[in-house]
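Continuing the batch. This is chain 6 of the set; chains 1 through 5 are on the previous pages. Same settings as before, nothing changed between runs. Recording input and output for traceability.
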Amino acid sequence: MDVALVLAVDVSRSMSTAELRIQRKGYAAAISSPEVVHAIGLGAYGRIALMMFEWANDTHGRVIVDWSVIENQTDADRFAELVLDDSSYGQRRTSISGAIARGADLLSEVPYIADRHVIDISGDGPNNHGAPVTIARDAAVESGIVINGLPLMTKGGVGFQFNIPDLDVYYRRCVIGGPTSFVIPVTDWEQFPDAVRRKLILEIGGRTPPSKAKVIPAQITFEEPYDCLVGEKIWRRMRDQYFWDP
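Output for chain 6:
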């Protein structure tokens, strides 16, 4: 296999029922698109291993479609049908660390030999449950896994109070990791199918999005520290304010 790819899909309650359905349709359309099937055919082996699971809190990691070999349009169409045949229901909390750990476990059990192991995580908020996200990320990257991110920076939803305006930066600084890792943000649901399609093509080919800059000057830059516990801090503040259970 050219790649064993895990699609980790956010179903936390900050996602509305309509958004969950849009997300499913977007993944199905992207996976079965001729562009993605063509990209698979261009690989050294011409086939990939693909699976999808949903995640929310640290204990929720339900398989939607188990490991499947995608080699042609028929395989891709069948996977897309299984994605659409299943339904998700919103679950409490957001544990990106749990999603990474679950994805790593699934990759350790993949029944095929693959040149690359990749976890593709989509989500609309920062980690607020389970272990700190950087611990899970570092453990996965150390084992040879690449983590890519699809931050959903859409407006509205019942969990808007847990949103952060720079979710794309959070994903870049705290979630993704490994060679060729990248982030493709989504700011409007109409962009979602195209964003997933682009992301899959890049992941299948082991590439990163092209830079707009043709020449990058040699320089040393030091970014300001980023608080990767921002989600946990928002949750604690809201819990204390509204007397929620831990």
